[in-house]
Write a structure and sequence with these properties.
Radius of gyration: 25 Å
Largest sheet: 6 strands, mixed
Number of strands: 17
Number of helices: 16
Strand order of the largest sheet: 4-3-5-15-6-16
Shape: globular
Helix content: 25-40%
Length: about 425
Protein backbone atom coordinates (compact mmCIF):
# COMPACT_ATOMS: atom_id res chain seq x y z
CA UNK A 1 0.00 0.00 0.00
CA UNK A 2 1.47 3.39 -0.96
CA UNK A 3 1.45 6.40 1.35
CA UNK A 4 -1.37 8.13 -0.52
CA UNK A 5 -3.73 5.16 -0.41
CA UNK A 6 -2.80 4.54 3.25
CA UNK A 7 -3.78 8.11 4.16
CA UNK A 8 -7.06 7.62 2.28
CA UNK A 9 -8.01 4.58 4.35
CA UNK A 10 -7.02 6.29 7.61
CA UNK A 11 -9.18 9.29 6.76
CA UNK A 12 -12.05 7.05 5.73
CA UNK A 13 -11.82 5.12 8.99
CA UNK A 14 -11.74 8.32 11.04
CA UNK A 15 -14.74 9.67 9.18
CA UNK A 16 -16.63 6.47 9.83
CA UNK A 17 -15.80 6.63 13.52
CA UNK A 18 -16.91 10.25 13.74
CA UNK A 19 -20.14 9.46 11.92
CA UNK A 20 -20.81 6.54 14.22
CA UNK A 21 -20.18 8.58 17.34
CA UNK A 22 -22.40 11.44 16.20
CA UNK A 23 -25.20 9.67 14.36
CA UNK A 24 -25.56 6.18 15.79
CA UNK A 25 -25.53 4.33 19.07
CA UNK A 26 -25.01 0.85 20.35
CA UNK A 27 -28.23 -1.09 20.85
CA UNK A 28 -29.04 -1.71 24.50
CA UNK A 29 -30.82 -4.48 26.34
CA UNK A 30 -32.38 -4.39 29.80
CA UNK A 31 -30.72 -2.33 32.51
CA UNK A 32 -28.81 -4.32 35.08
CA UNK A 33 -27.38 -6.91 32.71
CA UNK A 34 -26.11 -4.93 29.72
CA UNK A 35 -23.13 -5.78 27.55
CA UNK A 36 -21.63 -3.94 24.62
CA UNK A 37 -23.93 -4.68 21.71
CA UNK A 38 -23.06 -5.56 18.15
CA UNK A 39 -25.75 -3.53 16.43
CA UNK A 40 -25.46 0.21 15.87
CA UNK A 41 -28.59 2.26 15.43
CA UNK A 42 -28.95 5.73 13.95
CA UNK A 43 -29.53 8.46 16.50
CA UNK A 44 -31.10 10.78 13.97
CA UNK A 45 -34.44 12.08 15.34
CA UNK A 46 -37.31 9.77 14.43
CA UNK A 47 -41.00 9.62 15.25
CA UNK A 48 -42.47 6.13 15.59
CA UNK A 49 -46.17 5.51 15.10
CA UNK A 50 -47.42 3.29 17.92
CA UNK A 51 -50.88 1.67 17.59
CA UNK A 52 -52.05 0.94 21.13
CA UNK A 53 -55.34 0.60 23.00
CA UNK A 54 -54.97 3.52 25.40
CA UNK A 55 -58.21 2.50 27.10
CA UNK A 56 -56.44 -0.58 28.45
CA UNK A 57 -54.01 1.60 30.40
CA UNK A 58 -54.53 3.50 33.60
CA UNK A 59 -53.93 7.26 33.98
CA UNK A 60 -50.38 8.25 33.01
CA UNK A 61 -49.31 4.66 32.31
CA UNK A 62 -48.38 5.41 28.70
CA UNK A 63 -46.16 8.24 29.86
CA UNK A 64 -44.74 6.23 32.78
CA UNK A 65 -43.96 2.96 30.99
CA UNK A 66 -43.36 4.13 27.42
CA UNK A 67 -42.74 7.81 26.77
CA UNK A 68 -40.55 8.67 29.76
CA UNK A 69 -38.29 5.55 29.64
CA UNK A 70 -37.83 5.91 25.87
CA UNK A 71 -37.04 9.62 26.19
CA UNK A 72 -34.50 8.85 28.91
CA UNK A 73 -32.72 6.01 27.13
CA UNK A 74 -33.25 7.04 23.51
CA UNK A 75 -33.86 10.82 23.32
CA UNK A 76 -33.84 10.70 19.53
CA UNK A 77 -37.06 8.62 19.51
CA UNK A 78 -40.50 10.22 19.78
CA UNK A 79 -43.63 8.09 20.12
CA UNK A 80 -46.82 9.07 18.31
CA UNK A 81 -49.69 7.11 19.85
CA UNK A 82 -52.56 5.93 17.64
CA UNK A 83 -55.37 5.06 20.04
CA UNK A 84 -57.00 1.86 18.79
CA UNK A 85 -59.63 2.22 21.52
CA UNK A 86 -61.36 4.64 19.17
CA UNK A 87 -63.37 2.80 16.47
CA UNK A 88 -62.01 5.02 13.72
CA UNK A 89 -58.49 3.94 14.66
CA UNK A 90 -59.07 0.19 14.74
CA UNK A 91 -56.07 -1.54 13.24
CA UNK A 92 -57.76 -2.63 10.02
CA UNK A 93 -59.11 0.88 9.46
CA UNK A 94 -55.81 2.70 9.94
CA UNK A 95 -54.11 0.24 7.58
CA UNK A 96 -56.85 0.75 4.98
CA UNK A 97 -56.37 4.49 5.39
CA UNK A 98 -52.71 4.21 4.48
CA UNK A 99 -51.19 4.53 7.96
CA UNK A 100 -48.76 1.79 8.82
CA UNK A 101 -47.57 1.85 12.45
CA UNK A 102 -44.03 0.99 13.48
CA UNK A 103 -45.23 -0.64 16.68
CA UNK A 104 -48.49 -2.36 17.59
CA UNK A 105 -49.67 -3.60 20.98
CA UNK A 106 -52.00 -6.60 21.08
CA UNK A 107 -53.17 -9.05 23.75
CA UNK A 108 -52.67 -12.79 23.39
CA UNK A 109 -56.39 -13.77 23.50
CA UNK A 110 -57.22 -11.35 20.68
CA UNK A 111 -54.06 -11.56 18.62
CA UNK A 112 -56.19 -12.65 15.68
CA UNK A 113 -56.89 -8.93 15.09
CA UNK A 114 -53.19 -8.54 14.23
CA UNK A 115 -52.58 -11.81 12.41
CA UNK A 116 -53.25 -11.74 8.69
CA UNK A 117 -52.83 -7.97 8.42
CA UNK A 118 -49.44 -8.34 6.78
CA UNK A 119 -47.81 -6.45 9.65
CA UNK A 120 -46.34 -9.59 11.27
CA UNK A 121 -42.57 -9.54 11.52
CA UNK A 122 -40.10 -12.07 12.92
CA UNK A 123 -38.17 -10.16 15.58
CA UNK A 124 -35.76 -12.96 16.45
CA UNK A 125 -33.00 -11.46 14.23
CA UNK A 126 -33.39 -8.21 16.19
CA UNK A 127 -33.18 -10.10 19.47
CA UNK A 128 -30.00 -11.76 18.25
CA UNK A 129 -28.34 -8.62 16.85
CA UNK A 130 -29.09 -6.70 20.06
CA UNK A 131 -27.87 -9.70 22.09
CA UNK A 132 -31.04 -9.30 24.12
CA UNK A 133 -31.05 -11.73 27.05
CA UNK A 134 -34.39 -13.53 26.85
CA UNK A 135 -33.60 -15.92 29.72
CA UNK A 136 -34.55 -13.23 32.22
CA UNK A 137 -38.21 -13.19 31.24
CA UNK A 138 -41.13 -15.49 31.97
CA UNK A 139 -40.55 -18.33 29.51
CA UNK A 140 -44.18 -19.45 29.43
CA UNK A 141 -45.18 -15.89 28.51
CA UNK A 142 -42.56 -15.67 25.76
CA UNK A 143 -43.39 -19.07 24.26
CA UNK A 144 -47.09 -18.22 24.40
CA UNK A 145 -46.53 -15.55 21.75
CA UNK A 146 -45.57 -18.34 19.35
CA UNK A 147 -48.42 -20.58 20.49
CA UNK A 148 -51.10 -17.92 20.16
CA UNK A 149 -49.84 -16.77 16.75
CA UNK A 150 -49.33 -20.35 15.49
CA UNK A 151 -45.88 -19.37 14.24
CA UNK A 152 -42.50 -20.90 14.95
CA UNK A 153 -40.84 -17.53 15.43
CA UNK A 154 -41.47 -14.65 17.77
CA UNK A 155 -43.49 -11.87 16.18
CA UNK A 156 -43.55 -9.85 19.38
CA UNK A 157 -42.61 -9.76 23.04
CA UNK A 158 -44.91 -9.50 26.08
CA UNK A 159 -44.39 -6.67 28.57
CA UNK A 160 -47.08 -7.37 31.20
CA UNK A 161 -49.57 -10.12 31.94
CA UNK A 162 -52.45 -11.07 34.20
CA UNK A 163 -52.04 -13.31 37.19
CA UNK A 164 -54.65 -15.56 38.85
CA UNK A 165 -55.59 -15.22 42.52
CA UNK A 166 -58.26 -15.98 45.09
CA UNK A 167 -59.41 -12.76 46.74
CA UNK A 168 -61.33 -12.95 49.99
CA UNK A 169 -63.25 -10.65 52.32
CA UNK A 170 -61.80 -11.14 55.80
CA UNK A 171 -64.82 -9.51 57.47
CA UNK A 172 -67.18 -12.18 56.13
CA UNK A 173 -64.91 -14.98 57.33
CA UNK A 174 -64.57 -13.29 60.72
CA UNK A 175 -68.33 -12.76 60.93
CA UNK A 176 -68.97 -16.49 60.64
CA UNK A 177 -65.87 -17.63 62.55
CA UNK A 178 -64.38 -19.45 59.55
CA UNK A 179 -60.65 -19.78 58.86
CA UNK A 180 -59.28 -17.80 55.92
CA UNK A 181 -58.40 -19.46 52.58
CA UNK A 182 -54.91 -20.95 52.33
CA UNK A 183 -52.40 -21.25 49.51
CA UNK A 184 -52.41 -24.56 47.67
CA UNK A 185 -56.14 -25.32 47.90
CA UNK A 186 -57.81 -27.33 45.16
CA UNK A 187 -61.12 -26.32 43.62
CA UNK A 188 -62.86 -29.01 45.69
CA UNK A 189 -61.36 -27.65 48.92
CA UNK A 190 -62.30 -24.11 47.92
CA UNK A 191 -65.87 -25.19 47.23
CA UNK A 192 -66.11 -26.87 50.65
CA UNK A 193 -64.82 -23.69 52.28
CA UNK A 194 -67.39 -21.66 50.33
CA UNK A 195 -70.20 -23.72 51.89
CA UNK A 196 -69.18 -22.47 55.34
CA UNK A 197 -69.51 -18.78 54.42
CA UNK A 198 -72.56 -18.97 52.17
CA UNK A 199 -75.20 -17.82 54.63
CA UNK A 200 -78.26 -15.62 54.96
CA UNK A 201 -78.02 -13.32 57.94
CA UNK A 202 -79.44 -9.93 58.91
CA UNK A 203 -81.45 -9.75 55.71
CA UNK A 204 -78.29 -10.23 53.59
CA UNK A 205 -77.44 -13.22 51.42
CA UNK A 206 -73.69 -13.82 51.55
CA UNK A 207 -72.17 -15.83 48.72
CA UNK A 208 -69.20 -18.06 49.41
CA UNK A 209 -67.46 -18.18 46.04
CA UNK A 210 -67.58 -16.72 42.54
CA UNK A 211 -65.39 -18.86 40.24
CA UNK A 212 -65.74 -16.40 37.32
CA UNK A 213 -66.29 -17.28 33.67
CA UNK A 214 -66.25 -20.88 32.49
CA UNK A 215 -63.80 -19.88 29.79
CA UNK A 216 -61.27 -18.70 32.38
CA UNK A 217 -61.55 -21.88 34.43
CA UNK A 218 -61.30 -23.99 31.26
CA UNK A 219 -58.16 -22.13 30.21
CA UNK A 220 -56.33 -23.57 33.24
CA UNK A 221 -56.76 -26.99 31.64
CA UNK A 222 -55.94 -25.63 28.17
CA UNK A 223 -59.45 -26.26 26.91
CA UNK A 224 -60.19 -24.03 23.94
CA UNK A 225 -63.29 -23.30 21.89
CA UNK A 226 -62.11 -23.76 18.32
CA UNK A 227 -59.53 -25.72 16.38
CA UNK A 228 -58.06 -22.81 14.35
CA UNK A 229 -56.61 -25.05 11.65
CA UNK A 230 -59.81 -27.01 11.05
CA UNK A 231 -62.04 -24.00 11.88
CA UNK A 232 -64.35 -26.23 13.91
CA UNK A 233 -65.72 -25.88 17.43
CA UNK A 234 -64.21 -28.09 20.15
CA UNK A 235 -66.60 -27.67 23.09
CA UNK A 236 -68.91 -30.69 22.99
CA UNK A 237 -66.62 -33.05 24.89
CA UNK A 238 -65.75 -34.45 28.33
CA UNK A 239 -63.30 -31.60 28.96
CA UNK A 240 -65.98 -28.94 28.94
CA UNK A 241 -68.39 -31.24 30.79
CA UNK A 242 -65.82 -31.34 33.59
CA UNK A 243 -65.63 -27.53 33.74
CA UNK A 244 -69.40 -27.02 33.67
CA UNK A 245 -69.84 -29.77 36.24
CA UNK A 246 -67.43 -28.05 38.63
CA UNK A 247 -69.06 -24.65 38.17
CA UNK A 248 -72.55 -26.06 38.65
CA UNK A 249 -71.48 -27.73 41.89
CA UNK A 250 -70.24 -24.34 43.15
CA UNK A 251 -73.35 -22.42 42.11
CA UNK A 252 -75.56 -25.20 43.50
CA UNK A 253 -74.40 -24.40 47.04
CA UNK A 254 -77.66 -23.12 48.60
CA UNK A 255 -77.55 -19.32 48.50
CA UNK A 256 -74.57 -19.14 46.12
CA UNK A 257 -76.49 -19.09 42.83
CA UNK A 258 -76.34 -15.34 42.11
CA UNK A 259 -73.88 -15.69 39.25
CA UNK A 260 -71.43 -12.79 39.00
CA UNK A 261 -69.12 -13.11 36.01
CA UNK A 262 -66.24 -10.68 35.40
CA UNK A 263 -67.23 -7.16 36.46
CA UNK A 264 -70.44 -8.32 38.15
CA UNK A 265 -68.50 -10.57 40.49
CA UNK A 266 -66.02 -7.78 41.17
CA UNK A 267 -68.90 -5.48 42.14
CA UNK A 268 -70.35 -8.12 44.48
CA UNK A 269 -66.96 -8.36 46.13
CA UNK A 270 -65.92 -4.69 46.27
CA UNK A 271 -69.15 -2.69 46.24
CA UNK A 272 -71.89 -4.94 47.63
CA UNK A 273 -69.44 -6.79 49.91
CA UNK A 274 -71.63 -9.86 49.93
CA UNK A 275 -69.10 -12.16 48.24
CA UNK A 276 -66.63 -13.99 50.46
CA UNK A 277 -64.24 -15.27 47.74
CA UNK A 278 -63.56 -14.22 44.16
CA UNK A 279 -61.30 -16.37 41.97
CA UNK A 280 -60.20 -14.15 39.12
CA UNK A 281 -57.54 -12.07 37.38
CA UNK A 282 -55.41 -9.16 38.59
CA UNK A 283 -57.66 -6.65 40.35
CA UNK A 284 -54.97 -5.00 42.47
CA UNK A 285 -55.05 -1.61 40.68
CA UNK A 286 -58.87 -1.60 40.95
CA UNK A 287 -58.88 -2.04 44.73
CA UNK A 288 -57.85 1.59 45.05
CA UNK A 289 -61.57 2.42 44.97
CA UNK A 290 -62.23 0.20 47.99
CA UNK A 291 -59.92 1.67 50.62
CA UNK A 292 -61.82 0.31 53.63
CA UNK A 293 -62.49 -3.17 52.22
CA UNK A 294 -60.86 -5.70 54.53
CA UNK A 295 -59.49 -7.98 51.81
CA UNK A 296 -56.56 -10.27 51.24
CA UNK A 297 -55.56 -12.85 48.66
CA UNK A 298 -54.44 -16.46 48.47
CA UNK A 299 -53.13 -18.68 45.70
CA UNK A 300 -55.57 -19.42 42.88
CA UNK A 301 -57.34 -22.81 43.33
CA UNK A 302 -55.84 -25.63 41.31
CA UNK A 303 -56.89 -28.91 39.77
CA UNK A 304 -55.19 -31.97 41.35
CA UNK A 305 -53.68 -32.96 38.01
CA UNK A 306 -52.26 -29.45 37.45
CA UNK A 307 -50.92 -28.31 40.79
CA UNK A 308 -49.87 -24.64 41.03
CA UNK A 309 -51.31 -23.77 37.61
CA UNK A 310 -53.51 -20.75 37.00
CA UNK A 311 -55.42 -19.40 34.02
CA UNK A 312 -53.80 -19.39 30.62
CA UNK A 313 -51.43 -16.58 29.74
CA UNK A 314 -53.26 -13.32 29.14
CA UNK A 315 -50.54 -10.89 28.14
CA UNK A 316 -50.01 -7.62 26.33
CA UNK A 317 -47.58 -7.96 23.44
CA UNK A 318 -45.44 -5.41 21.59
CA UNK A 319 -44.88 -6.00 17.88
CA UNK A 320 -42.46 -4.40 15.42
CA UNK A 321 -44.20 -4.23 12.04
CA UNK A 322 -42.83 -5.67 8.82
CA UNK A 323 -43.32 -2.36 6.98
CA UNK A 324 -41.57 -0.16 9.54
CA UNK A 325 -38.57 1.71 8.16
CA UNK A 326 -37.23 2.03 11.70
CA UNK A 327 -37.26 -1.54 13.01
CA UNK A 328 -34.14 -1.12 15.15
CA UNK A 329 -35.51 1.99 16.84
CA UNK A 330 -38.86 0.25 17.37
CA UNK A 331 -37.04 -2.63 19.02
CA UNK A 332 -35.22 -0.14 21.23
CA UNK A 333 -38.63 0.97 22.49
CA UNK A 334 -39.36 -2.64 23.46
CA UNK A 335 -36.01 -2.96 25.25
CA UNK A 336 -36.83 0.18 27.24
CA UNK A 337 -40.18 -1.23 28.38
CA UNK A 338 -38.54 -4.55 29.25
CA UNK A 339 -35.68 -2.92 31.16
CA UNK A 340 -35.18 -3.70 34.84
CA UNK A 341 -36.14 -0.14 35.69
CA UNK A 342 -39.53 -0.18 33.94
CA UNK A 343 -40.41 -3.76 34.84
CA UNK A 344 -39.66 -3.01 38.48
CA UNK A 345 -41.86 0.08 38.34
CA UNK A 346 -44.63 -1.96 36.73
CA UNK A 347 -44.36 -4.47 39.58
CA UNK A 348 -44.41 -1.75 42.23
CA UNK A 349 -47.67 -0.44 40.77
CA UNK A 350 -49.38 -3.83 40.92
CA UNK A 351 -49.12 -4.79 37.25
CA UNK A 352 -47.60 -8.20 36.77
CA UNK A 353 -44.14 -8.02 35.14
CA UNK A 354 -42.71 -10.46 32.62
CA UNK A 355 -39.26 -9.96 34.12
CA UNK A 356 -38.65 -12.75 36.63
CA UNK A 357 -36.67 -12.86 39.84
CA UNK A 358 -36.72 -12.00 43.52
CA UNK A 359 -36.35 -8.26 42.92
CA UNK A 360 -39.70 -7.79 41.18
CA UNK A 361 -41.42 -10.21 43.57
CA UNK A 362 -40.17 -8.34 46.63
CA UNK A 363 -41.37 -4.94 45.40
CA UNK A 364 -44.66 -6.14 43.90
CA UNK A 365 -47.46 -3.74 44.86
CA UNK A 366 -45.18 -1.61 47.05
CA UNK A 367 -46.48 1.63 45.48
CA UNK A 368 -50.06 0.75 46.46
CA UNK A 369 -50.73 1.99 50.02
CA UNK A 370 -53.96 -0.02 50.24
CA UNK A 371 -52.10 -3.25 49.37
CA UNK A 372 -49.55 -3.04 52.17
CA UNK A 373 -49.60 -6.01 54.50
CA UNK A 374 -51.48 -8.14 51.98
CA UNK A 375 -50.28 -11.58 50.87
CA UNK A 376 -49.20 -10.34 47.46
CA UNK A 377 -46.72 -13.16 46.95
CA UNK A 378 -49.75 -15.34 46.21
CA UNK A 379 -49.69 -13.80 42.72
CA UNK A 380 -46.42 -15.62 41.99
CA UNK A 381 -47.39 -19.06 43.34
CA UNK A 382 -49.33 -20.29 40.29
CA UNK A 383 -47.66 -20.45 36.92
CA UNK A 384 -49.90 -19.52 33.99
CA UNK A 385 -51.09 -22.20 31.61
CA UNK A 386 -49.64 -21.73 28.14
CA UNK A 387 -51.77 -19.67 25.77
CA UNK A 388 -53.82 -21.47 23.14
CA UNK A 389 -53.68 -20.85 19.38
CA UNK A 390 -56.09 -18.06 18.58
CA UNK A 391 -58.82 -17.90 15.96
CA UNK A 392 -60.68 -14.91 14.57
CA UNK A 393 -63.87 -16.60 15.76
CA UNK A 394 -62.74 -16.77 19.40
CA UNK A 395 -64.49 -13.57 20.43
CA UNK A 396 -67.91 -14.98 19.55
CA UNK A 397 -67.11 -18.40 21.01
CA UNK A 398 -65.74 -17.00 24.29
CA UNK A 399 -68.76 -14.80 24.88
CA UNK A 400 -71.15 -17.58 23.95
CA UNK A 401 -69.51 -20.18 26.21
CA UNK A 402 -69.29 -17.78 29.16
CA UNK A 403 -73.03 -17.11 29.01
CA UNK A 404 -74.14 -20.74 29.09
CA UNK A 405 -73.67 -21.48 32.76
CA UNK A 406 -76.80 -19.55 33.74
CA UNK A 407 -79.40 -21.82 32.04
CA UNK A 408 -77.54 -24.82 33.48
CA UNK A 409 -77.66 -23.42 37.02
CA UNK A 410 -81.31 -22.47 36.63
CA UNK A 411 -82.09 -26.03 35.56
CA UNK A 412 -83.38 -24.91 32.18
CA UNK A 413 -80.94 -27.15 30.28
CA UNK A 414 -78.58 -29.98 31.16
CA UNK A 415 -74.85 -29.78 30.49
CA UNK A 416 -74.89 -32.29 27.61
CA UNK A 417 -77.60 -30.36 25.77
CA UNK A 418 -75.99 -26.97 26.34
CA UNK A 419 -72.61 -28.11 25.03
CA UNK A 420 -74.11 -29.82 21.99
CA UNK A 421 -76.07 -26.68 21.13
CA UNK A 422 -73.00 -24.51 21.76
CA UNK A 423 -70.90 -26.50 19.31
CA UNK A 424 -73.63 -26.16 16.68
CA UNK A 425 -73.95 -22.40 17.30
CA UNK A 426 -70.19 -21.79 17.08
CA UNK A 427 -69.85 -23.86 13.89
CA UNK A 428 -72.78 -21.98 12.40
CA UNK A 429 -71.10 -18.68 13.25
CA UNK A 430 -67.83 -19.85 11.66
CA UNK A 431 -69.54 -20.90 8.44
CA UNK A 432 -71.48 -17.64 8.23
CA UNK A 433 -68.35 -15.55 8.69
CA UNK A 434 -65.84 -17.40 6.55
CA UNK A 435 -64.38 -15.44 3.69
CA UNK A 436 -65.99 -17.00 0.65
Amino acid sequence: MNKRSGMYWICTALAALLTASCGSQTGQGPAGGEKDRQVTVSTEPVTLKFAINMGWLGPDEFQKYFEEPVRKRYPHITLEAIDMTKPEFALDKIIAGGTVPDLVMTASPIMYRFLGTGLEHNIEPLIKSFQFDMSRYNQIAVESVKTASRQNQLIGLPWTMHFSALYYNKDIFDKFGVAYPKDGMTWEETRELAKKVTRYEGGVQYRGLEPDKSTRVASVLSYGFIDPAAEKATVNNDNWKKVFGLLKSIYDIPGNNKIGLAGTGYNQFVKDRTLAMLASVNYLPNFKEAQNLNWDMAQYPSFPELKDTGMQVDEWILHVTAQSKHKEQAFQVITAVLSDEVQTEIAKNGRFPVLTGKTVEDVFGSNLPYAQGKHLKAAFLSKPAKALPVSKYDSFAEGHMASLIEPVVKGEKDINSILREAEEAINKHIEANKIK
